[in-house]
Amino acid sequence: MTAPASPPVAPPSWTSMTLNRYVVELKEFLRSREQMVFIFAFPMMLLVLFGSVFGGAVLDGTDVTFAQYFLAGMVASGILNTGFQSLAMSIAIDRDEDVLKRIHATPLPATSYFAAKILQVLSVTVVQVVILIAIGVALYDVALPSDAAHWGTFAWVFLLGTAGSTTLGIAMSSLLRNAKAGSAIITPIVLFLQFTSGVFLIFTQVPAFLQTVASIFPLRWLAQGMRSVFLPDEFKYAEAAGSWQLPLTALILAVWVVVGLVLAVRTFRWTRHDDN
């Protein structure tokens, strides 16, 4: 007598594969001391350092302290660092170590891999932003918005900024010839954007031609969008255009999401550049 046939096992769903990969990505991040220091400790150190040195200074013509101004910039910069710099370098390392090649040879859909990466970046960025805001409130008495409209602005600026930074990070990972070149290429780019986009310096104090250059890139608009959330509304008159320019901010960030997505799709490589 033959044994009854076992019922067919259903293949794992896209959602389950994505969530499993997300857990793997999160564990790999938590095990990387270098990434943990860069993503969490470095921005915290900068916020405490700049806040302690300049925190009590009131910006000319306003009641805004430098610590409050700097918090908005650090939140914006943290989004860029996590989604662009850290992600680009981590993917480049995985490519150099043939991790991407092995993943590509498995049944895991490419969309699941990228979705897991995006979820990991989003989770880490949320934690980082919460920590920065908590430090600003606890150490420098930064006032948080109390109305839904400002938090609604925070939500869409955060999501568009994270989406753009992530797609650009994926695209940049393929432009790096190898992981060792990552820090030498990406770090100067990020530092240039931070100094010209109103993160470390007051944006209107940056030379006019550098303001124009910075306005091409997303960090300038991401930082201004965050200032519209964390700074009083009257501060908009101290901005370069005399307003928060939120519609233009949304448009430019959305354009960079599309640009990053197109570049990521067209340039992404699963194998090293020296592989045939």
TrEMBL record:
<feature type="transmembrane region" description="Helical">
    <location>
        <begin position="184"/>
        <end position="203"/>
    </location>
</feature>
<keyword id="KW-0472">Membrane</keyword>
<keyword id="KW-0812">Transmembrane</keyword>
<dbReference type="InterPro" id="IPR013525">
    <property type="entry name" value="ABC2_TM"/>
</dbReference>
<feature type="domain" description="ABC transmembrane type-2">
    <location>
        <begin position="34"/>
        <end position="271"/>
    </location>
</feature>
<dbReference type="GO" id="GO:0140359">
    <property type="term" value="F:ABC-type transporter activity"/>
</dbReference>
<dbReference type="InterPro" id="IPR051784">
    <property type="entry name" value="Nod_factor_ABC_transporter"/>
</dbReference>
<feature type="transmembrane region" description="Helical">
    <location>
        <begin position="69"/>
        <end position="93"/>
    </location>
</feature>
<dbReference type="GO" id="GO:0043190">
    <property type="term" value="C:ATP-binding cassette (ABC) transporter complex"/>
</dbReference>
<keyword id="KW-0813">Transport</keyword>
<feature type="transmembrane region" description="Helical">
    <location>
        <begin position="114"/>
        <end position="139"/>
    </location>
</feature>
<keyword id="KW-0046">Antibiotic resistance</keyword>
<dbReference type="InterPro" id="IPR000412">
    <property type="entry name" value="ABC_2_transport"/>
</dbReference>
<dbReference type="InterPro" id="IPR047817">
    <property type="entry name" value="ABC2_TM_bact-type"/>
</dbReference>
<dbReference type="GO" id="GO:0046677">
    <property type="term" value="P:response to antibiotic"/>
</dbReference>
<keyword id="KW-1003">Cell membrane</keyword>
<feature type="transmembrane region" description="Helical">
    <location>
        <begin position="244"/>
        <end position="265"/>
    </location>
</feature>
<feature type="transmembrane region" description="Helical">
    <location>
        <begin position="151"/>
        <end position="172"/>
    </location>
</feature>
<dbReference type="Pfam" id="PF01061">
    <property type="entry name" value="ABC2_membrane"/>
</dbReference>
<feature type="transmembrane region" description="Helical">
    <location>
        <begin position="36"/>
        <end position="57"/>
    </location>
</feature>
<protein>
    <recommendedName>
        <fullName>Transport permease protein</fullName>
    </recommendedName>
</protein>
<comment type="similarity">
    <text>Belongs to the ABC-2 integral membrane protein family.</text>
</comment>
<keyword id="KW-1133">Transmembrane helix</keyword>
